[in-house]
Amino acid sequence: MTSVLYVEDTETMQKMYSFGLEQEGFKVTVAASAGSALAKLEGEKFDVILLDLMLSGMSGLDVLKAYDVKTQSPGTRVVVLTNMENQSVKERVESYGVAGYLNKSEYEPKQLADYLKGLA
Amino acid sequence: MSNTITEPDIQQRLWMLYVLVVVAWLYIIGLSPVLMADHKAFLVGLNVVDGLIAAAVAWRAWRTNRVGLMGDIACLVGVVMISSFLLISGIDGAIYSATAAPVYFYLITSRARATVWAANLMVVYLTAYILVSTGHIALPYSVTNLGLFIASYVVSCVAVYAYASQKDRMEEALAQSVASLAREKASVELQVRERTRQLFEEHAKLAYSIESLSQGLIVVDGHDHIIVRNTSAAKVLGYGKRQWSLDNLAHDAGPDVELYEVLKRVREKGRALTLTGVKLGSRILQLSLAPVLVAKHVISVVMLIEDTTEAKLQERSRDEFFSIASHELRTPLTAIRGNAAMIKQYYGKVLGKDGDLSGMITDIHESSVRLIEIVNDFLDASRLEQGRMQFIPTEFDIAEVIEKVTYELGAYSREKKIYLRLDHDIKSRSLPHVYADIDRVKQVLYNVIGNAMKFVDHGGVAIAAYEVHGRLKISIADTGPGISEDGQRLLFRKFQQASNSIMTRDSTRGTGLGLYISKLLLEQMHGTIDLEHTEVGHGSTFSFTLPLAKPLGHKNIQYKGVAR
Prior knowledge:
The complex is a heterodimer of chains A (120) and B (564). With 120 residues, chain A is of the alpha/beta class. Chain A contains six helices and five strands. Chain B has helices spanning 8-31, 39-62, 68-89, 91-108, 111-133, 143-212, 231-237, 246-253, 259-269, 309-346, 348-352, 355-385, 398-416, 424-427, 438-455, 485-490, 514-524; strands at residues 216-221, 226-229, 273-280, 283-294, 297-307, 394-396, 419-422, 434-436, 460-468, 471-478, 528-535, 539-547. Chain B is elongated, with a radius of gyration of 57 Å. Chain B starts with 7 loop residues before the first helix and ends in a 17-residue tail after the last strand. At the A-B interface, helix 1 and helix 5 of A face helix 10 and helix 12 of B.
C-alpha cells in the first residue's frame, strides 16, 4: 500500500483528499503544519509527500529546505499540490527536485490518485 | 606709427645705400680725368663727409626717434659745409657732397624734413650754376662739371626718396600687422570673456539641475572622495551632515554591494553600472553609477541614488495579489469540485435512487469546474495585461502537443458526439519544431479547440498544421454556426462573444476571455491569431501561427523580459 504524508493546513482539503486517496487504496497520514510534517518525517518514511505550499507558520518551501529528501529518504517522491500560482515560487520549488507541481483546482481526488499511481 | 630705425635690417639697408653712393661716386671719378685734378681736396672732402655720415648713422642708431630740431640743425650744418666745399674745395668734394647729401639728410631727420633740406641744397646748387654760367662768380670748375654734380645730386635724391618710400611702406605694413594683431588680441579677449560667461552660465545651469533632481546625486573622485552631492542625496539616504563619507555609505550598503569594488569596476571598465534592490536600513535603493570620461580617462564617477522602496512594495503587492487571489478563490472551489465529484464517484448507488439529487450534484460539479475556469481566465487576462506573466520558450514538436490536447478533449467530443480530427502531418509527426512556451501553447490550443467544440452540435472539429512563410500555422476548422459580420468585429476582444449584446450573452459558453487571452499569449510568443474563414450556418476556421525553431547554431527569437 502506497503511504502518503499529506501536508495541508486547510481542514476541508485534508478531509477531501484523504478520503479520496484512501478510497483509491492509499495510506494517508495528515500533517497540519510544516513543523508537524518534519516531526513525522523523523520517525517514518513515506512513499509520497503531498505538500501544500501556503501553510500557517512555516511554508511548504521551508519543509523542502529543512528535509533533504534526496539524502534523507531517496525513495520518497515529493508532489506539490497547491492553488497558489507564482512563477518564481514554482521555480524555487522545482529546484528541490520535486516529482510534480500540481494545481489543486485541476485535480479532483480521483484524478490525484490516478496521477500518484502513474508516478509509481 | 613708430619712426624707429633701430631695427637691424633698416640699418643694414642704410649702410648698403651709403656704400652704393660711394661706389657710384668712384665710378664718376673714374670716367672723368678732369675730376682727378686735385686729389688732396678730394680726400679731405671724402673724409669729412664720410665722417659726418658715419656719425649721423651712429647717432640715429643710438637714438630711437627722429629728432625734429636737432635734425634741422644737423641738415643746416650739412648744407653750409657742402656749400663751403662747393665754393672752396673744388670739384671732387662737391661731387661727393652732391651724391652723399640726400643720404645724409635722410639719415639725420624725417623724410619730410630731408625733402625740404634737399630742396634747399638744390637752390644753392642751381644758384651756383646760374652764377657760374652767367659769369658773375668764378668757381674752381666749369659749368659742365657743375651740371654733372647737379645731375648726380638729383639721381641720389631720387634713390633716397625711393628708398624712403619703400621703408615707409614697410613700416606701414608693419604698423598694419601690429594693428591687426592688436585687433585680434582684442577679439580673443572678447571671446575669452564671452566663453567665461557661458561657462559660468553652464555651471549655474548644471548646479541647479543637480540640485533640483529628485534622485540623490553623488560625484566621487579618483581617490574615493565625495566631491559633489545634492540635497536629495541626503534625503534619499537619510543622512545628516556628520554621516557624509563614502566609508559610511559603503558600510551601510553592506558586503553584498561592495561599493568600493563596484566603483573600481566602473573606473576600470569605463562603463555604467546599475545596482537594484540595494538595502539601506528599511530603504530599498537603486544605484546607477556612470564614469565621467575626459579624453578616455575616468576622472570621477557619478552615482545616482533612487529610492525604489515604494515601487518594490507595490510590485510585491501586485505579485502577492495574483498569488493570494488565485489561492483564496480556488481553494473553496476545489473543495466544491472535489467533493461533488466524489459524491458522484463513491455514492453513485445512493444517488441512483434519486434522479433529481444526482442532477443537482452534477450541476454543482459542472458549475464549480466552470467557475474555476472563469477565475483562471480572469487572473490570466489581468496578468497578461500587466505584463506579469512569464514565458519560458523552448523548442518542441507541436504535433505531440496537439495530440496530447486533443486526447484530453476526446472525452468531451465523445460526450457531444462530434468528431475531433487531426490531419496527416500531425499524426505522422512530420512537422518542424516550433520555439515557444509549451504550457502557453497548450493553453491556446485548449482555448481555441475547446471554443470550437463548444459551438458545434453536429459534425466536429478538424485540426491541420503546416509550414507557411517560415512559420508554423495551425488551423482549427469547425462545423459550428459560423460568425456574423457584427460578431467578427468583436472577436479577440475582452469579454466578447460573437453574440449580440450583454443582454443576450450565452454564459454557458464561457466568459468571452478565451480568444482574448489566446491573442495576448500568442503576441508574447511572436505568434498571431486570425479568423481565417467563416460562413453563417456552415462553420468557421481559426488559425494561429508560431515561430519555427531555428536550426542549430542560429539564435532563436529573443523574448521580452517579462516580470514575474
